[in-house]
Design a protein that fits this description.
Length: 343
């Protein structure tokens, strides 16, 4: 009996040693796999708020993988251009700061002949996508600006395109051709999509990184409320599963003000905090979104303000990470009180 027990003990010790070795091996393997694909962080630097944006950048830049320069848009003759101050800032930052992957964002905003601006203009896209020759000319113009500016990648942020089925289908052809040419020119490609885009049943080209905006649940188009909440984030992430290849999400800093006189305007976090202090408003944190909200009256008008701070953004990114979306972009740098606390 002692002999049998001894043999059993030896077998148990051997099995335990093997189990430990195997566990260690797989643990190390898992660690190496995770290290190869770390979470990516990106942010937008807007041409109209470069000074404040740069301040935020310095607080966050050690955790950024890429920086998107916002933006190239259209002049009155449908030609693309980059605001000179944005190019100057890129040159300055890349001389003095950390080298991030630099993307040039293209938007479908347009200067009108009278000097006014058409925001998210689908008419200009309809003209540029009119035929194959016009589309290829537009693509070549995009590539030329990105290459001349020394950018590492191109980011397409054309919005409201799905309101017109013809423009939407043309956009798919445009991205396929653009992706092919970015590969030929050693450029990366990110495509920004609105949360209402028809992910399912749409043949998006495989290869680019798709960035879905997880905001605008409430905003200038609606009544008061948060830019995102848990339900909105989870539902959009579920719909995103049909997108091909690399998928990322974007969250918005700041917030919005709504007056009962019909006034609506976007605010940075710093502007919102300043208003709350000025009016002695008591702020509360919403349970579903972790956004900060407060109300005040001025000149007979009742106002509501909702905005995101670092705690809000940390909560949103945590929801996304638990759903497998670890690559996060922030719209935008500038006017954020505690952006350096975001992990």
């Amino acid at each position: 009996m002692r002999k049998i027990l001894g043999e059993m003990l030896k077998a148990i010790v051997f099995a335990s040693a093997v189990f430990s070795l195997v566990s260690c091996f797989y643990g190390l393997s898992a660690g190496k796999a995770d290290a190869k694909e770390p979470a990516r962080r990106s942010a937008w630097l807007a041409y109209w708020d470069l000074a404040a944006g740069e301040k935020d950048l310095h607080k966050l830049e050690k955790r950024l993988t890429s920086l998107s320069y916002f933006a190239a848009y259209f002049d009155k003759d449908d030609r693309l251009f980059i605001p000179p101050a944005l190019i100057d800032k890129k040159k300055e930052l890349q001389k003095t700061g950390k080298k991030h992957e630099a993307y040039l964002t293209f938007v479908n905003d347009k200067q009108n002949p009278d000097g006014s601006a058409a925001i998210k203009d689908t008419a200009v896209l309809r003209r540029l996508f009119a035929d194959a020759a016009s589309m290829e000319k537009h693509i070549d113009e995009i590539l030329a600006l990105a290459l001349q500016g020394g950018f590492d990648g191109i980011e397409i942020d054309y919005e409201r395109i799905w309101k017109d089925q013809a423009v939407g289908q043309s956009f798919l052809r445009f991205t396929r051709s653009l992706y092919r040419k970015t590969l030929q020119n050693n450029l990366q490609l990110r495509i920004v999509l609105e949360p209402g885009a028809p992910f399912a049943g749409t043949t998006f080209t495989e290869g680019p990184e798709y960035v879905v905006m997880l905001y605008n649940l409430h905003g200038l188009h609606s009544g008061p409320g948060p830019k995102a909440d848990r339900s909105f984030i989870e539902k959009t992430l579920q719909r995103m599963q049909s997108l091909p290849g690399a998928r990322s999400v974007a969250f918005a800093t700041g917030g919005c003000l709504w007056g009962d006189n019909g006034e609506k305007r976007l605010l940075t976090e710093v502007e919102a905090r300043t208003l709350a202090t000025l009016h002695g408003a008591a702020a509360t944190r919403d349970a579903a979104s972790r956004s900060v909200a407060f109300a005040f009256r001025e000149n007979g008008v009742s106002y509501q303000v909702w905005y995101a701070d670092a705690k809000t953004l940390q909560y949103w990114t945590g929801i996304a990470a638990r759903q497998g979306a670890a690559n996060i972009s922030l719209w935008r740098l500038g006017g954020n009180a505690d952006i350096g606390k975001i992990r």
